[in-house]
Amino acid sequence: MDNAQAQSLLPASFLRALAAEAEPGSAPVRLAAERARALPIGYERGELVEALLTGAYREEAPEWLLAVAIDNDLERQPEPYSDRWAVRLAARALSHPSATDAFQARSLRRCSTARLGMLGGKDVPERLARAVVAELASRGPHRRPMTAGRSDQPSAARVVLQQREVHPVVFTAALDHLPVLPARDGSEEEPVSVWHAKWRAAFDAWDTMWEQVAAAHPEHHRRLLDWAKGTHAEPVIRRHLLGSLPWAVEPELLREVAQKDLESFRLHVLITRLCRERADGSAEETVRERYGADLDSLTAEERELVELYLDEERLGHEQGRDAAISWIREAAEGRWRHLLFPGEAATPYGQKHDWLSSPEQLASLGRMFAVGALEALTLLTEAGRFSGSHRDVRWAHAMLVHLDEVTSTVRERVRALVGEARWSMRLGPPLANSRRTQESLTAIERLIAEPVPPARAARSAELGPPER
């Protein structure tokens, strides 16, 4: 009986035990290694190679054995789409002390981009993560302006980021390679409407890309925001953290994002005040002097937005006299909707989300919003300026739910708002008379009815059970 026949008669479990316990270079280990080389690609071969790499060859291994480990994962078909377990043996081989930089580079070059992402998992050594980054960098082009067509043909960086729980080094490098904001350069031969439609489709694809990145990597949310600071992507990412998946955001970070968003409301209150005084006939110099301290405290970007409204050649003050009210409307209908009514947040299949933030933490965010909404209510109902509509119902409802106390003045202003909203609904499009709007109106009328229910009890009733 020759050596090959002897190998074939020995049970695989026996050989794995030898590989795990025998001394490197001993006859039993050599026997197990030769058997691993001879076996066809598959589970049995993989188990034996893994036993060798974690046992007798854990400190030093021949390159051919590392190559056998790589082959066993990379040549298996069909290729797994997102199962990191399917490349665990290749990851072990590439992380082995005997895996040289050149061996890592050659092996990673053989990988599909999906497998490359799998090999850049959170638990791999940083050395392997950096090798994955180097290989990713070679798979350009990178950082091209997004187009609608590229959303269906994702770049290498997007494919890598489709894998969950990637190594921080891989995550940051992949962000650097993602498509950038769509270009605004239309063809001179194209009508503006056609060019703008193409740009809008490209921007929507870019926006969706960031939502997908944030959803796939909740453990990297803070790292994502730090990376995006000062870029076009920052406001998009903040909006998604606040409005698209707030249940998956760590509570402290969620509060920071919410507070930052409300700073924008303060800016729009200032714009509203400036524009209303200009509309009432005050000279621009007088208005600038009166609000000089506020204007001096603004960032360059914030100042530019203010100037946009004060410049009659651009937006002009008539466009800005209700800026704060527009802000609160859009926030309540969009990015704040889940925070204000967390019990309504559900999956497309109707399942309630499990929030990282506690009910108390969510109620605190709701109160922060309500304070701003109260100021918007004052601006909306100032003498001679009342112009409520069905779009004010949602935020007014949220305000009443989250305020600690509903005063008689607030009730009177909300009653006026409800009257205007009902009038708007009779004259407006069918969407204005939606079931949600009707439900909010009914809830508002209950909350402002006499006698006024205790604020905390009313808020609990509107928010739903604590577990929601």
3D structure, described in words:
The chain is mainly alpha-helical and 468 residues long. It has 3 domains: 1-60, no CATH class; 77-225, no CATH class; 251-463, no CATH class. It contains 26 helices and no strands. It has helices at 3-9, 12-21, 27-38, 43-54, 63-74, 88-95, 101-109, 113-118, 126-137, 156-161, 168-177, 192-216, 221-228, 233-243, 251-279, 284-290, 292-296, 300-310, 317-320, 323-333, 337-340, 359-380, 393-402, 408-427, 435-447, 455-463. Helix 2 runs parallel beside helix 4, helix 4 (43-54) packs antiparallel against helix 5 and helix 15 packs antiparallel against helix 20. The longest helix has 29 residues, at 251-279.
Approximately how much helix is present in the residues?
Answer: 55-70%
Q: Summarize the biggest pleated sheet.
A: none
How far apart the termini lie comes to 71 Å
Q: Give the low-pLDDT segments.
A: none
Query: In what range is the share of β-strand residues?
Result: under 5%
Mean of pLDDT: 87
If helices are DSSP runs of H or I spanning 4 or more residues, what is the number of helices? 26
Which word captures the global form?
A: elongated
Structural class computed from helices and strand pairing: mainly alpha
Number of strands: 0
Structural Rg:
31 Å
Query: Could you give the order of the helices and strands?
Result: HHHHHHHHHHHHHHHHHHHHHHHHHH
Oligomer: single chain
The number of distinct structural domains comes to: 3
Which short descriptors sum up this protein?
single chain; 63% helix; 26 helices; 3 domains; elongated; mainly alpha; 468 residues
